[in-house]
Specification:
336 residues, alpha/beta, Rossmann fold, two-stranded antiparallel sheet, 10 helices, 22% strand, disordered N terminus
Length: 336
């Protein structure tokens, strides 16, 4: 009996010493392991925010240089895209790309894609506002996985790859990094910053729409104020799906950054950021009032002098601060 007990204990000790089949490597966030995250279609998914060995293995299979797809839209082809292939200068010459125009880069979020509302709202809005090159980046090979931890890892990988694409495009066409406006939503918002810092902060204008909170509380790859010449953040579900504190040179908290007028869900709040940007491009409005802190912005307690327009085509280079405003529940969202 004693021998049997010793053998059982020895077996248990050996089993505990052996590695698990999918060991946990680190916690992405200090909060709960399982959290709800909204994808690009507004659906909530319960995800695991502890990074496992399998997450790293999955992320390692993503290669942005060969798997990303770049779709060009211009006023000459506003609804049917033209593909742009890194390294293929001959094919580039067959597109409507014009290096004399400013270029917009659009970056969708997790489990999103080419037909998401983010793209269908912003592509026509940008083209209505100005004669531009609008490049929609399809990074679904890295983003469209139920494995959220792998998608977070791929956000950095994709950003580095897109920066290489832009560098190639500029070399081929003589375009300048200062002609770029990079816009991202959720995971794509952080990616905009990653692209900018891999271009040494040269892009003229970065817009982070509802930067994702899950996976980025302590993540050093989050959006930063110096990632571009002018960096702006629009918070619409702060503290839930979106980042709560300031990340840019200018941070806007419409309706206090949460509980958007006319919305009845976190997913709706999370999406409102790009609807606001789209409207700002075509009709302006959205005048923000300066706040001392983001806590004040979230409560609407903003009494400082100085207003600033949210969004728009032109970077407000040299401006900084935290701003609050109210919106309407339905379009037009701007109250002026």
């Amino acid at each position: 009996m004693v021998k049997l007990t010793v053998l059982i204990l020895a077996g248990l000790a050996l089993a505990s010493a052996l590695p698990t089949q999918d060991p946990v490597l680190r916690k992405l966030d200090p909060g709960p392991r399982f959290q709800h995250v909204s994808d690009g279609e507004g659906k909530l998914h319960l995800v695991d925010l502890w990074q496992k060995a399998s997450d790293v293995q999955e992320a390692a299979r993503y290669n942005p240089d060969s798997q990303n797809i770049y779709h060009l839209f211009t006023r000459l082809n506003p609804t049917v895209s033209q593909p742009m292939i890194i390294g293929n200068s001959g094919f580039l010459g067959l597109t409507n790309y014009n290096s004399r125009r400013r270029t917009i880069i659009l970056l969708h979020g997790w489990n999103s894609g080419t037909t998401s509302d983010f793209n269908t709202v912003l592509i026509p809005a940008f083209l209505q506002a100005e004669d531009l090159n609008v490049i929609m980046v399809d990074w679904t090979a890295g983003s469209n996985t139920i494995n959220y931890a792998a998608a977070v890892t791929n956000t950095k990988t994709a950003g580095e790859g897109i920066a290489r694409f832009i560098d190639w495009l500029n070399r081929e066409t003589g375009a300048s990094a200062t002609h770029y406006h990079i816009v991202g939503h959720s995971l794509g918002a952080h990616m905009a910053g990653i692209i900018g810092r891999n271009m040494n902060g040269a892009p003229a204008y970065l817009t982070a729409l509802e930067p994702a909170l899950p996976g980025f509380i302590t993540n050093e790859d989050k959006f930063r104020p110096d990632d571009g010449a002018y960096t702006e953040v629009i918070h619409t579900n702060a503290g839930n799906l979106g980042y709560v504190s300031t990340l840019g040179q200018v941070d806007f908290y419409p309706n206090g950054g949460n509980n958007m007028a006319g919305c009845d869900s976190m997913a709706c709040d999370h999406a409102r950021s790009y609807f606001y940007l789209g409207e700002s491009l075509t009709s302006g409005g959205f005048t923000g009032r300066r706040c001392a802190t983001y806590v004040g912005a979230m409560s609407g307690n903003c009494l400082l002098f100085g207003n600033l327009q949210m969004g728009g085509l032109v970077p407000k280079t040299g401006r900084s601060g935290i701003f609050w405003l109210e919106t309407n529940a339905q379009p037009p969202f701007s109250r002026g």
